[in-house]
Each structure stands twice: as C-alpha cells, then as structure tokens.
Amino acid sequence: MNKKYNGALDFWKFVFCLVILVFHVGEVYGGKHGYLLEWGRYAVEMFFIVSGYFMCVSAAKAEERHTGISLGKETFGFALHKIRRILPAYLYCYALGLCVWFVEVGRYVYLKEGIIGLFIAIVKMIPNFLLLSMSGVQGTQVVMITWYISAMLIAMLVIYPLLRKYKDTYTLIIAPVTALLISGYFYNTVGYNGFTKFEGVITHGILRAFVGLNIGCLVYMFAEYLKKKEFRPSVKRLLGIAELLLYLLAIFMMHEGGKTCVFYNNILLLFAISITASKQSAISGVFDNKVSKFLGEMSLFIYLCQSPARATVRYIFPDVSYWTGFAYIVGLTFVSVAFGMILLHWIARMNRQKTQLK
Question: Is the pTM of this model over 0.70?
C-alpha cells in the first residue's frame, strides 16, 4: 500500500457507518424501551470531523502547488472534486430511493392529486437531488440521509477559502472558537437532535457541519504536530491503547450517554482521530491493507443504501419485532451495497476497456 495511505481512518469510517445503520434500525423498530446505540445519530459527527481533516490536507497541498488560479476557482474545484468522488454511489442510491418513493409515496400522490400533483412532487425533488436540502429549501425528500453531504458541502464552501487565505489564524483561532461557540449554543438551546430545523438564517444541519469540520481543522493541527515527533515504542503502544479506548468510549456513549453525549464525544473523537491521522500509534500499520481500503469504499455505500433499505422494510413489514426488523434492514442494506459496488466496478471496467480500444 501507499505509505501515505491511512487504513485506520477507513476502518473507523466503516465502524461508525455501522453505528449509524444500527441506530436507524432502532428508530423504526426500537419502541419506547430503548434500543442499541440509541444516540448513534451522533456518529455522523465523526464523518464531519474526518472531512474537515481532509479539507485541511487538500488546502495544504494546494498551497504547495502554487497553481496561480484564483481562490474562488480553487474552492469551486475543491467542491467539484468532492462531488465527483461520491457521485457514482450517490446516483445509485438515489435511483434506489426513487423506486422506493414511487411505490411508497408517489402512487398515493397520483391517486389523490392526479398526474399534475405527481409531476409537481417530482419537480420538488430538485433541491434534494442537487444536495441543496440543507439550504433550507426542502421540497420532496427522496433520500433524506443525504443531509450530511449537503451540509458538509455548503459549510466547506465557506470554510475552505478562509482556511486557504488565513491558514494559521483559521486553524489556531477561528476553528476552535467557532466549534466551541456553536456547541455552547446547542447545549443551552435546541440540542443536537434533528437537522432540518431552521435556526433563523441557517439550518441545524449546517451548524452541525460547522462544528465537525472546524474540529477536523484542529485534528489536522494536532496530527501534524504528532507526525513531527519521534516517539519510543512504549509511547506508541500507549498512543495505540488510548486511540482504541477513545473510539470505544465514544461508541459506548452513543448507547448509554444520553442526548448530550455528542458534546463529550466530539472531544473524544478530536483526540482519537488526531492519533489515527498522525499514524504514530503502534496499531496504525495494522490497518494499511486492501481490506481496510475495501471497507472504506463500502462505508459510503452503507451510509447511503440504508435509507432506501430501511424505507422498504418499514413499508413491507411495519409491525415486526426489533430483531426481525434489524435482520431485514441490515440484510437488505448489504445486498444493496454488494449489488451497487459490483455494478459500478463493472461499469468502470467497461469504461477502461473502451478507453484502451481508442
């Protein structure tokens, strides 16, 4: 594997995707008596933080290249690159979501409001399809789980140019203060629940993105500091133990920590991901392999495909037990993931063969 590849980040992305999947099963079939990872919705913060870290990595590389293009064009190119990376999995998931929507919702819209009503509902899908839902323009929701991607991209368009222009000021001052102030606002008012709630001029989801992405900037700063250090093997072992315990404690808090656990988890993940990103722990090399790379690729598919899978199972089996629903949703999610990954790999191979023939 490439020496710069960080398999541990891919592995933990996969684990936290499973946390979100388990949480969403409980939302449908958990009932009033609690369920596994009841606060697993906050696993999304891990992805915001990792995305913030990689945003800083991209900004640092751009600074080294000295391309000479304007900051606006560079920021646009950065966002476009992000979209291109997720686009195949996103289009596949959206196609599944459309099929489910037409069966579960669309046909009833047609029966009640006719072809005109159905057409209007389809037109109102545009904000959701274009990942603009977190702007506050909701419309018809086909795949609501894409709120994370929408919030991340919108927040990055604000943060990235500031990060490029004022790197040290942003990472040392603006990022921690922004994350701290928004967290304090959340803690004392609406909390972290939900993402579509409108906070006057901005949606709840974008505020969550600003917290996570700015913590990711701190992760970058800490990781770069750790990378420059020469640690003894005993210290690296201690870092490995701390890294593992911090992740496990964050997951435990999402089961037992209550609705405020996210505020403490953000601190736990700040240090855990900093150690992981630095590759200074004794266990970091264990994950640098093709298995972790595969799990990292799978994590995006799991995150996206669980939404149509959950809607399908809920529609067909509305009254089954928690564990039956768990088996159905997890099973259908992984079937969807497997089919999607095989299909997209086949399409990519066909495209490569066509290019070679030319």
Answer: yes
**List of residues 6+ apart from 222 with CB closer than 8 A:** 270, 271, 274, 278
Kindly state the tokens that stand for 11: 């592995």
As for how many domains the chain has, the answer is 1
The set of residues, in sequence order, having a beta carbon less than 8 Å from that of 191 and lying 6+ positions away, is 259, 260
Sequence-distant (≥ 6) Cβ neighbours of residue 64 within 8 angstroms: none
Q: Whole-angstrom Cα distance, residue 49 to residue 277?
A: 11
Structure tokens at 155: 């927040």
Q: For the residues 94-106, what does the mean pLDDT come to?
A: 95
Q: Is the pLDDT of residue 196 over 70?
A: no
Q: Which amino acid is it at 280? A: Q
d(CA 217, CA 211): 10
Tell me whether residue 108 is in a domain: yes
Q: What share of the chain is helix, strand, coil (3-state, %, to 5)?
A: 80, 0, 20
- Pairwise pLDDT comparison (353 vs 304), residue with the higher score: 304
For residue 79, give its domain range.
7-357
Please count the helices (runs of H) and the strands (runs of E) in the chain: 13, 0
41, 20 contact by CB (below 8 A):
yes
> Is there a domain that residue 1 lies in?
no
Instruction: Give 61-98 as a DSSP string.
Output: HHHHHT----HHHHHHHHHHHHHHHHHHHHHHHHHHHH
